[in-house]
Amino acid sequence: MTEIVKIPSAILKKGTTSVPEKDILSGKYADLIEEMRAAMKEHNGIGLAANQLGHNVSIFVIDKKTADAYEKPDVYINPEVTEYSNDADEIEEGCLSVPQYYIPISRSKKVKLKALSETGEKLKIKARGFLARVFQHETDHLNGITIKDRHGK
Question: Which of 21, 82, 105, 135 has its CA 20 to 30 A from that of 116?
Fold first, then answer.
């Protein structure tokens, strides 16, 4: 079974490094992306950030069923939430890097996200509800924030 990095590992506390577009186009991260998809599925995750597998790069994947349900891609490279709605809700979240820990987290109901696809295509996505929550959770990971850090905010 693929090992998921757990808190208090230092890699989960620091922001990840942007991926150069030429490296995406050359396929440098194709194996990592496949490893991330497999590890997420293996651990029954909904999303997984590269630093959760010990790679300090700005990539996350989301569950294929979730991606298909929203008609969105399942891979996001150099993602950035560019807009958060003021309208928020609080829902219990868990995290593969924080086992057996579930806590209500307040997040915006709608976000706008920009990223690159696994083929280097520019993505601009509006997300709401569950998908918006997943985007915020995974983007937090890439920024060195876990649900433990969000608790009480």
Answer: 105
Give yes or no for a contact between 11 and 60, defined as CB atoms under 8 angstroms apart. Answer: no
- Residue-wise pLDDT tens digits, 62-72: 999 999 999 99
The arithmetic mean of pLDDT across residues 122-145, rounded, is: 98
Residues 148 and 140: their CA atoms lie apart, in Å, by 11
Looking at the 3D structure of the chain, how many domains does it have?
A: 1
Per DSSP, the residues of 2-39 read PPPP-TT-GGGTSPPBPPPHHHHHTTTTHHHHHHHHHH
**How far apart are the C-alpha atoms of 90 and 92, rounded to whole Å?**
7
CA dihedral 68, 71, 72, 73 (to 10 degrees): 50
Q: Which residues are catalytic?
A: 138
Residue 4, domain member (yes or no) = no
Residue 102 located in a structural domain: yes
Residue 82 structural domain: 10-150
pLDDT confidence tier of residue 152, bands split at 50, 70 and 90? low
